[in-house]
Amino acid sequence: MPTPPAEEPASRRPGRTVEEILADAGEEARGALRVLGELVGNEPPGVAGPVPFAARHLGVDPLAVAATRYTGPASALAVLGNLMRLEMERHGAAVAIGSPGEGAPPAWSQIDLGLDAHGLPLEVTVPGKMIVAFPAGTIAPVPLCLKIVDTPQWQREFTVLSTVADKRVAEETMKRLRERVCGGENPLRGRVLQASVGDCGLSIGVCPAIDAGREGLVLPDEVWREVDVFLAAATTRRDLLRSLGLGTNRGLLVAGPPGVGKTYLVRVIAAALAGRYTTILADAHAMRHVLAELYAEAETFGPSLVVLDDIDLVLGHRDASHDNAPLADFLATLDGARQRQDVLTIATTNDPQSLDPAAQRANRFDTIVSLPLPDAATRTRILERHLGPLGLPIDPADLAAELDGATGADVREVVRRAVLEHGATFDTAQLAEIVRSGRWRATVNRRKYL
Ligand SMILES: Nc1ncnc2c1ncn2[C@@H]1O[C@H](COP(=O)(O)OP(=O)(O)OP(=O)(O)O)[C@@H](O)[C@H]1O
Ligand SMILES: [Mg+2]
Fold this sequence. Notes:
Strand 11, helix 11 and strand 12 form a beta-alpha-beta unit. The protein is 37% helix and 19% strand. The chain folds into three domains: 15-182, no CATH class; 192-370, Rossmann fold (3-Layer(aba) Sandwich); 376-437, Helicase, Ruva Protein, domain 3 (Orthogonal Bundle), CATH 1.10.8. Helix 4 packs across helix 5 (167-182) and helix 15 crosses helix 16 (428-437). The chain contains 16 helices and 13 strands. The protein is elongated, with a radius of gyration of 30 Å. By secondary structure, it is α/β, with parallel strands linked by helices. The chain binds adenosine-5'-triphosphate (ATP) and magnesium ion.
């Protein structure tokens, strides 16, 4: 029987990468090759792939390098990057930085934290794409490498590289780092964030804090009572509800015609929960396209309040809507069974009837609050509220009686028109003239232009 041709020695097979050759070579040959590479300039040390980099710093063969991976939402990765930065600062000269792979140099990313107390932009620079070697006795008793790649084009990932023998330590380190993200060490926690859609899906930015007090809004007492119950369930009564197995608060749906103060009420609630809850304001694009992703992110920020203003613009009725995908997404995301422990939702709608009944079901929103059109007494108080800062001797009761059918926003507009036309001083007759003229009413210009 003919003997098969002897297999070509691995070292002489064509098309092998430098890393494969290095992996096969003995430690001395590897050292010599590395020096030669640096001299020739083909492989500067910072551009070696992450596995050879890790192998070198862990003191093992590349085949003995183990990876413990976490693939999370973008903001979780940014916050892990921030922890990496803190550890790099803490251990200073002891750490070494390497390439994230594919010949790319290490790169940094910015986390935008909005404005500071003086109105200046606050930013932190964190590792975006890189590998960092931490020697034994720094982040763990054994040497470990942390690798981050925060862009989705590159498979977003955070990895702890260790020797195969130290894989348990790597897993514990990953667990501790992730606990720190969900704990206090998240610079985005407790802030007001805006969720929209960017080039790579969901994009989250920081907004100025919301400053809206109850005194700006006149609503029936029973509405404030519902709001107080909702706030108590989210704050003072939260732990008690949980310990009794009575579930947690999921959400509030605020319904009412245009201009009755729904958006303002949401702002009042968000301001009341500021600091304890991270507020995430979703714009229409985010609601339509990346809602599930947004809720996944919300968990990174500790207790969060997701605000979905004007959901009726995005979620229609199953029969009426041509595009049912946003509704299906919404129903699945807010389903009671899949509800997240610490994510509250507040949504507003002009027309609860237009919302699919399933979207209103009690396990998606605990409470539905209806804001009515203001009656004459309420209109009087709204006029007083908006006229108050001017300090004019005007009795608003008769004027309010004439504003039948007006919303809170209309009443505010009456005062705004008066200020536009007369400045800071006007009398009851001048205000009455504006009320009667109807100039405060937003109307469509029906004249035809030829
Ligand atoms: N009940 C009210 N008391 C005092 N001010 C009010 C009241 N309702 C509305 N306003 C005034 O009108 C403004 C606009 O109201 P808001 O935007 O909250 O209405 P909305 O119900 O969200 O309307 P839309 O359905 O058009 O979004 C508020 O910022 C507030 O100044
Ligand atoms: Mg609104």
